[in-house]
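Training component of the fellowship. As part of building independent skills, the fellow (R.M.) carried out the full modelling exercise for a liganded target. The chosen ligand was magnesium ion. The inputs are recorded below so that the supervisory panel can assess the work.
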Amino acid sequence: MQDFSGLPDTLSTALTKKGYSGLTPVQQAVTDDALAGKDLLVSAQTGSGKTVGFGLAMASDVLDDAGRFGRPAAPQAAVIAPTRELALQVRREFDWLFAEAGIVTASAVGGMDARTERRAIERGAHLIVATPGRLRDHIARGVIDMSDLKTVVLDEADEMLDMGFSEDLEFILDHTPKSRRTLMFSATVPRGIAKLAQTYQNEDAERLKVGSAEKQHADIKYSALNVAPSDIEKAIINLLRYHDAQTAIIFANTRSMVARLTAKFSNRGFSVVSLSGELSQAERTNAMQALRDGRAQVCVATDVAARGIDLPGLELVIHADLPSNAEALLHRSGRTGRAGRKGNSILIVPGRQRSKAQRLLKFAKLDAEWGIPPSAEAVLAKDEERIASNPALDEPSSAEELAFAERLLNGRTPEQIAAAYLRLYRERHSAPEILGALPEPGHRKPRDHAEFGPSTWFSLNLGRKHRAEPRWLLPMLCRNAGLSKSAIGAIRVQFQETFVEIANDAIAAMKQELGPEMSLEQGAALTELSGAPDFDASPKGPPADTLWTGKPPQKRKPRTEDKPKAPHKPKQAKDEGRKPSKPKKDKAPEKRGEKPPFKGKPPSKPKESKRRPDAADTSKSLRSGKVRHTSKGKGPQSRTGKGGDARPFRKRSKPQGR
Ligand code: ADP
Ligand code: MG
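Fellow's submitted model of the complex:
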């Protein structure tokens, strides 16, 4: 039974065609006649149908009595969203919702071709969907005339402010009529949003909170899994295998982590795409398309994908890094469990972050089940269960299939064929990982060298001159080389290299993990030594406290034994390079991760630098001389505007205060 009473026929027809049987609570709330024409600040949980909600809410502002749009000209309505993907998704929703009403939509979205946009806008449109920077550009250049605007929607308004779009929004709204209606929608309404509402909305604006905060995400099962730090990637592989979700999304806090996980999972045979600010718009669009049409199963993303993205088959969200706050946790997790469907949100919790995870869950008012990741055995058992319960087994067979079955059975038992079927299934899927035991809380195994056993020495091309310290080398080696801490013996930092002792029984797996170059991250690489390291032959260099007096040390001619080592590549250093000397900072979420990792005088900021460059718009950051991450040839200098600050292993100007 369809219940779309009170809506214009054109809309109820569209909703029925789409297969909806009624309005969701937030859609009912915003279409209340009493709210017609009023400014609204609406919060309702993720996946509750806010997009159609604001479509329906604005209908009475922009449609004629027959429920139709007039001739397309200057836009009647604008929807502004924080990310490109979200803006384009909104456009798709409006295209079907208002199809019967004869809508013409246009977009103004960062990263897209501005001339194509311009032509579409000039042909006339009823609605413009936009990201803030690009829309501002079009207004400033006189491409778009906003003076006819009846309604403006700010989707995920709080996020747009967080990303530093407030100036752009102000500029845009200043170019719209005072009489316009302003609708603001988000799942979370943090403090400070009231102020935003005051700035942008009328005094009689209504605040709607749909659904109680207590019941939010009832369709999402939250789990928090204790994982040894060296097992994080393995745990995720097992989770992906265990859940076998049609689509899964993995959130990480930094672009470098996204790149690493993407490479890792892709090597393991998952069809994986990534989404982060590091990618070109074309790459981001392709990634979204691959997820929508099922070519890709796994998406590894920064928080650029945390808001609004709606992928119907997305059943699994994994937080490879804990989100930075409770809101981010809710938004990321809200990519699943949408429109009444069930979903899983899984937090990966390395030992030390347990209390942080507990805090996040508490603030978000969520209950999570604590546990450990599925073991390799559990994954294999799940495979068997999946095969055994496959409905295809009970489907009637065609004559052709039966003839083939007979051929197969010729000389074989059914058991042999069933076993081969299982084998083939396993071959097509990545092997599950064996997870190490979790360390007991608070228990630290002393590293007793006598117990270490047979080992081989390697040279790592990072030394004191790169501010190498065992404190970060150890986790870096574990992370990249798939080693457990117990497989690493002595770590001897020299001036320009570090000698690392690795247990022989871990070496084969490590080499397989690293490939023939034995490269780790950001140009770091291992070289196997034929015997014990020659400490005397390794250049001494100046004493540690005289390093980095502002000038890089003189290049010396490489010794012959230096040759095989990969040169240090500063190009990836921007968000990774900090990691070594400042492990905490690297954990900063991407949106804050753009700041140069510099404690002293910050480089002078370009005007727009408040905005998260990652997000929607490149047009202005390009104008202001900021260069987006490119994969070739550009040192960190080109991205921060000031060279030295982003040097990979930079001098700390002061001991770390925080
Ligand atoms: P939100 O913005 O609240 O996070 P969306 O607007 O993206 O949620 O909608 C989430 C999903 O719900 C979308 O896939 C959308 O197509 C679907 N949806 C929206 N309205 C309805 C409805 N009335 N009935 C069924 N599904 C709906
Ligand atoms: Mg939304």
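The panel noted the following from the submitted structure. Residues 443-448, 544-610, 613-658 have pLDDT under 50 and may be disordered. Residues 220-374 form a domain with the Rossmann fold fold (CATH 3.40.50.300).
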